[in-house]
Design brief:
CATH architecture of the largest domain: Alpha-Beta Complex
Largest sheet: 9 strands, mixed
Structural class: alpha/beta
Number of strands: 32
Number of helices: 16
Low-confidence stretches: 1-17
Number of domains: 2
Amino acid sequence: MTPTIDAPTRTTQTSSAVSAPVEVLEWVHEAAAWLTPREVVWCDGSPAEAQRLTATLVESGTFTPLNPEKRPGSYLARSEPSDVARVESRTFVCTTDPLDAGPTNNWVDPQEMKDTLREVARGSMAGRTLYVVPFSMGPLDSPLSRPGVQITDSAYVALSLHTMVRVSTTVLVRIAEGASWTRCTHTVGAPLAEGEIDSAWPCNDTKYISHFPESNEIISFGSAYGGNALLPKKAFALRMASVLAKNEGWLAEHMLLVKVTSPEGKSYTMVAAFPSACGKTNFAMMQPSLPGWKIETLGDDIAWLAPGTDGRLRAINPEAGFFGVAPGTSTSTNPVAMTMLEKNTVFTNVALTSDGDVWWEGMSKPTPEGLTNWLGESHDPDSGEAAAHPNSRFTVGLEACPSLASEWDDPEGVVVDAIIFGGRRSSTVPLVLESRNWNHGVFLGATIASERTAAAEGEVGEVRRDPFAMLPFLGYNLGDYLQHWLSMGDTLRVTGRLPRIFQVNWFQKGEDGSFLWPGFGENSRVLEWMVDRLEGRVAAQDSPIGLLPKSLNTEGLDLDSSSIDALTSVDTAAVEADLDDAEEFLARCEDRLPVAITEELAATRIRLRS
C-alpha cells in the first residue's frame, strides 16, 4: 500500500483534512511550485463544497442566478467569445514515436511539449486557488472504472466536475491501495496580480490541450470551456482511455448507451456512435412513438466496453452527468431533457429572458422579446445573429434525467446487444442497414462521415470523415485502433456472443431540402426493426453496402412511396464516390491500416459493380 500523509487544506473549504497518497501529494506540490497559486484547496465532492464553489462563482460574476421561480437552483455562465468550443487545432497527442499518435492527431514530442508548457504556464495560477479534485470514471466499486485527479484554477471547472464525474476522497484511497491513476493538470492561463480585478471568464488566447499516453497524464492550458477544461470528459474518458483500453483489452468509445424494452417486456442494450451535435442526446432520451416500447437512458456521450465474466461485451457510462448542446432542444424534440433542465442546471452561453429564465434557438417560437444574448448584449431578432451560441451547453447530473435506467450505475455494466453507427448525411447513406458480420461492421464504423456542426472548429456543413465518431478523440494511431476493434471481434467470437452492428442516418433530405424521415420519437420504428433482426423475426434485403429492411413499420407516417424508397435504397454512384473519399482518407494510415479493412473496401466495390 502506498503510504499516505495528511494534505494541507483550508478548514474554511473542507470539513476535515484529506489523507492523500504520497505520489498524489508530491505531484500537487510539484505543480504548485511551477504554477504558484495563492492557495491549494483539496476537494471532497460534498454538497457543502458545491455550495461554496457556487457562491464563489456568483460573487466573481461568472454565474448569474436564474429566477428561482422559473429555474430553481440554476445559473447562467457566459464565456469569452474566443472560448466557446473544442479547439482541435490546439489538441495534441505527445508520444515518443509520432507513428503511435498516428495521422489523425496533432503530434509533438512529449519532452518538447512539456518544455513548452513549463515555460508558458509558469506562474499562471498566481493570485488564484488551485483546486485538487479526485474523481472516478464510472462507479467507485466497478472493475471497469478508472481513477484520476485533476488540478485546476477554475472554480467553474471544479464545480462542473462535481456534476460530470464522481468526485470523492475514496478515489485517494483506491490510489493508495495501488490503483493506476491519470494526472490531469489544467490552468486557465490568466495569472492575477495583487489588486487586479478578475475577469468573469478568465482564459488565454494561447491554448494547449496536450495528452501524454506514455506517462498517463493530460495538461491543458488557456481554455475554461467544456472538454478543453473538464479533463475527465473527452481528454481522459476518450483520448487517454482509448490508449488504456488498447493496452488492457477493452474499448473506450464516443457512444450513447440506452436500454430498449419491447412490448413483450424483453430488454436490449444498445450503444451508438454519433459525432457531436448529431442527435445523441435526443436518441439517449427518446420517447418512442410506437405503443408499448420503452427507452431508458444509460448515457448520452461516452461508453466503456469490456468482455464480462460471462464472455459477453458489457458497458458502463464512465460519466455522472450531461454536458449537452442546448440549441434545438425543446419540448417537441426532447421533452425528457426539458424536464431534466427544470432545476439545478448550469447553462453556458445561452440567452437570458427578461424574467430571468434561459432561451435558445429551437426552444420555442416566436423568439421572446427583451432577450439578452450570449454575449451579454441586448438581442436584436432582426439582426440575423443567434441569441444563444450554436454550441451553448447545459450541465446537469444524470440522476435528474426522468428516463434514467436503474442499471445506470451497475458496477458490472450492462450487456451490449447492438452497436449502432451514424452520422449527419443529407444523401448517400440509407436510413438503416445491418452489417454482414463483425468485420464489415468495423468497416462501416471506419468509414463514417458527417456534416460538420458547431460543436467543433471548421466550416459548418462540410463533410468530414469521422471513424467511429472518434476522430477528435482518439489517443493513438487510427490504424491500430481499427485493428483493436477487429481483435475484439476475435475475442468475442470465442464465446459466440458478438453484438450485431447497424448503421443509421436520420438526416437524409429530399430535393426541396427538407428531411425525408421525421426522426425523434419515430426513430423507435428503426429500433423496432433492429430488435426484430436480433430476434430473427424479419428477413433483410441484401445490398452492396449491407442488409436493408425489406419492409419498415411506417404506418401512420406521412411518407409517400418515393420517400420510403429513397430512405431504404442505395445510390450506387453516390456510394462509389463516397468509397473513393473513404479510401483516400484511410490511406493516411499507410501500412498500419488493417488488411481486413482493405478487403472490406474491395468487396464493397465488387458488389457495387456486379
